[in-house]
Amino acid sequence: xxxxxxxxxxxxxxGLPVYWSDFLGNILALxxxxxxxxxxxxxxxxxxxxxxxxxxxxxxxxxxxxxxRQVVIIVSASWGWATWKRSREKEGTIQVRWASWTExxxxxxxxxxxxxxxxxxxxxxDASFYPGAPxxxxxxxxxxxxxxxxxMYSQARRYIEFWFVWLAVDLVGVPLAIHSELxxxxxxxxxxxxxxVMGIRDWASRSKPQDIASPLEPAVQVETRQH
Length: 227
Fold this sequence. Notes:
Number of helices: 7
Structural class: mainly alpha
Oligomer: single chain
Strand content: 5-15%
Number of strands: 4
Helix content: 55-70%
Shape: globular
C-alpha cells in the first residue's frame, strides 16, 4: 500500500488543506451524479472507484461510520450496476411513487432506531473520531451511514421520498465533514444539497402532474417521461 501513501497527503485548495483521497473521491462522486443524470452505465464503476478513495479518506480521519458507508456504497453500486443493465434491457420506462404513510413511518423509525443502534456500536468499538468523542459526533457519523442505506433502499423502491432522505443526510454531512477537516467533502456535500433540491423538482417535472400523489394522499405509481 506504500505506493498509494500519497492519497493521505494534503495539498492547498484555495487555502484549505485537502487530502488527495478526499479530493479525488468527491470529484468522482460529482461525476457519478452527472453520469447518472445521463443514465449512463459508466456511472456505476465511477461511483465504486470514488467510494474507494472516500473510504481511504474516512479511515485517515477515523470516521468509522462514513468508512462503513463507503463499503455499503461499493457493494450496492456493484449490485446496482448489474440490476440497471438488466432493467435497461427489459424496461423502457421508470415508475416512481410517493411512499404510503406506513412506509414513511417505517423509514423514519429505521432512521432513528438505526442511528442509535449503530451509534452505540461505533462508541463501543471506538470506531468513530477518537476514544471518548462526544455523543453528538458519533450519532452524526451514524446518521449519515444509516441515512445512506435508507436512501438507497428508497431509491430502489422508487419512492420519491428518497430525495428527502438524502437531504437529511446532507444537512448533517456538511458540518460533520468540515468539523473533521475534510473540507472538500464539505464543499461537495453542499453541492449535493443543491442537487438534491433540484432532484426533487426534477422528479416532479418529469412525472405526470395529474398523477402525482400528495404526501397527504394515498401513494400512486407514475411513469416518468422519456427524452
